[in-house]
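Design a sequence for this backbone.
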């Protein structure tokens, strides 16, 4: 065999070894990922509870409105408040509501900025003491709740503090962190609920997309296992740093 033939043979062998190595790394990397069965964006919610029941005489907001901290939501004319005042009880205002003892009214306010949802205190309606009259999706509190069906082995590889990729409806991907994990075993599988927090979801640039209820896909990065786990992690960490992966 000539030297040129030998070099070609060696080159072919090296190419095959390189291809197999790359495919092995890719396969191992795929084994460290788990895509969500379902996933949606959620927010922290504040329930507007009625300290005093009565009839709604003023309505300042409606479902879908954006409010700021301290903004008026609705005013209630409360017989309960009047009775308390007549009995010598003192009703004091708070961050959540302002009391007018003389008029017998209570004006409820937003204790945090956000978006109004499930608004029940419509003008002319009755509000029951202790009941929830509205909810506020708190601004800047977006996170993802994702559900997975995992084998017991893969569930053991889900770690709080690990990273996750969130694919938005516009095909943009943002990075998040696993902050909570819940599990329920069904038919030998781990039905797993994961909370993923991401600062990117709370930016003004993604405000339109990152609304409560928006469907997304969340891919978890599981703890690598096996003899090639460390090498695989080094390669893909490098690719992420240079923006290839």
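Sequence:
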């Amino acid at each position: 065999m000539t030297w040129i033939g030998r070099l070609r043979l060696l080159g072919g062998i090296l190419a095959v070894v390189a291809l197999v190595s790359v495919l092995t790394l890719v396969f191992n990397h795929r084994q460290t990922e788990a895509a969500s069965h379902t996933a949606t964006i959620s927010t922290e919610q504040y329930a507007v509870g009625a300290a005093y029941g009565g009839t709604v005489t003023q309505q300042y907001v409606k479902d879908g409105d954006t409010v700021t901290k301290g903004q008026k939501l609705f005013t209630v004319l409360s017989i309960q408040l009047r009775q308390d005042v007549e009995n010598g009880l003192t009703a004091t205002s708070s961050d959540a509501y302002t009391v007018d003892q003389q008029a017998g009214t209570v004006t409820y306010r937003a204790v945090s900025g956000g978006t109004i949802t499930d608004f029940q205190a419509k003008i002319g309606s009755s509000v029951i003491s202790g009941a929830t009259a509205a909810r506020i999706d708190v601004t800047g509190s977006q996170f993802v709740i994702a559900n997975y069906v995992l084998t017991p082995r893969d569930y053991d590889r889900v770690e709080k503090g690990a990273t996750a990729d969130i694919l938005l409806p516009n095909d943009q991907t943002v990075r998040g962190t696993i902050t909570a994990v819940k599990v329920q075993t069904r038919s030998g599988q781990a039905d797993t609920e994961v909370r993923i927090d991401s600062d990117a979801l709370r930016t003004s640039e993604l405000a339109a997309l990152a609304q409560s209820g928006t469907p997304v896909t969340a891919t978890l990065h599981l703890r690598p296992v096996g003899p090639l786990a460390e090498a695989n992690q080094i390669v893909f960490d490098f690719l992420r740093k240079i923006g290839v992966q």
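The chain is about 20% helix and 35% strand.
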